[in-house]
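As the work plan foresaw, the team has encoded backbone shapes as discrete tokens. One protein thus recorded appears below exactly as we store it.

:::
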Amino acid sequence: MKHKHTIRLSGQRGYTIVELIVAMGITAFLSVVLIAFMVSLMGQTAVSSVRTAMTSSLQTALIRISDDVRTSSNPALCNLTPDVNAPQTLTGAAASVPCPADATNSNQQTFWRLTSDQIVINRTPQTASGELIYDDPATLAGKRDTIIYYVRGDALYKRIIAATYTTPLANAITTNTCAVIATGGCQTDTKILDGLDTSATGGPFVATYYDGSGNVIVPSGTDYSSFISARSISVTLKMKRTQSGQDISRDSSMRMQFRGSQVALTAPEPEIETPTTPTSSAKMFVGPGGVDMASASIVGGDVYVQGGIDMTLSSSIGTSVNPIRVTVSNFSCGAGASYPSRCATQPIPLSWANMSSINGPVCANDQTSTVGLPGLIAGCSAPKVDTPVFNKSVFTGQTTSSVTSSTLPCTTPLQANTRYIGNLDLSTGCRKVINGSNVYIKGGISAYMGGFTVSESMGTTRPIIVTDGKIRFNGFGSSVTPNSYGSTPYFISYASLDAACSNSDTCTTISPTQLKATIDTWDGDSFGNASPIVLITTSAPGTSFYAYFGRVSLALGSNAGSLGGQAVDVTGSTISLTTSPPLPSQ
């Protein structure tokens, strides 16, 4: 017999149509939410990825710029090395920037100009093996490679204009550029960054220059002379891209320091254990105000400093090939009648950070640190020697003729044994011929883009020019030109805060208080415009300058043959001490 089993499912029933519709709606909603979330997540991931990539690109670009700035000699107003494919016109801010190599702004090959959105810097050329190339290794003088960072469209480019060196040392790079307006871009220039935000306030590429005190440097109209004091630059880059329908902006900044390019310095063996007593035979003789150097070099002759030496920004005295004997007495302290007294601190406070050095035997009282001083002579005693003396009374007594300076045409030469009453103003382009020695100016000298030329009639005799007031050379083209015999003048300024002494025919001594006040007089800029003697962008090779009671200040590529006074400041210049002591014998 067969049995039929029946299974009963108690309590079970199917879904209603309404329930199915609701379930499907919820499922669809959740699917849409999930998909939207995933799309949003993917979009945000893409945006985040773009942001990260933009930040990385900005940092990479800034590092590349920083590498060039740190190895560069200095910022440049224009490309001194010609570029046949430079911009064809000067527009905007560039039209106001002067060029030392092209005072008339007519040479299109020098139309690369320093602006807030364009960087122009100089760098010492190198061989393929990394050896630095100079025309004169002793003075670190020579041509420079020019590096330009500029914006075209929404991209930042780098151009290198190579200095021409072929023998005996060949520059590792050669210039191969194309015009900035070249169709399809300039393949020979390096694209550093693209995607710049051309609509950004202030522009996508901004360069700001700072002096040694951290102050922003800005031009005064067409006067860009303040840029010689540039010690660092801040570069800001701004980018903008669109991703997933979202505008993404990023910017980044970096502060960079100009460090310069120098000959690798090695420690020379001291030639003597103690130096000879310094006298006025030193080609640079400085009093208690000491020597201040910033991005500067001094070569060619022994140096005596009664005070101290402060060196920053890759400054140097002497080279490994041609060392200089330096003597520092460390007498710059005290006040009133006790000035100058011997200081308790070290007179040459160098550090590895400022990359400065003195190359040659150094005898410095109280100096124990050898940083930057490979030739420091341990235990050496440097004598305190007074600054050289010039007998003003004897000199003025020889000036038997008198002329009013203001009535003197530019074409009228300066005559021997003559005193000129009032300031001598050499306006733009005026060059005064010096026909004789013993020229006494009862006032000061102001030479803007002008200067002096020594007459052939002087032969080998060096003329002497003495002033009661300040001596100031300024502007491209200001110079002192020797005759064919190589004769150059002595310039001596008696300017001080003691006006009665400065204007006297006989006074050569002021009180210690007035001496210190005159030395310390400083108008706050980097060129020492308050100094008794100021040279800015002035070419005066072989010429001697002596500030009897104060400072001699040189800046912006100035040079001289010998210097002296109570203090000396050198900024952005190479001084080749090639002539006799800064004061003549009488």
Observations:
- The chain has three domains: 72-257, 280-386, 392-576.
- The chain is about 10% helix and 30% strand.
- Residues 211 and 231 are 5 Å apart (CA to CA).
- Residues 392-576 form one domain.
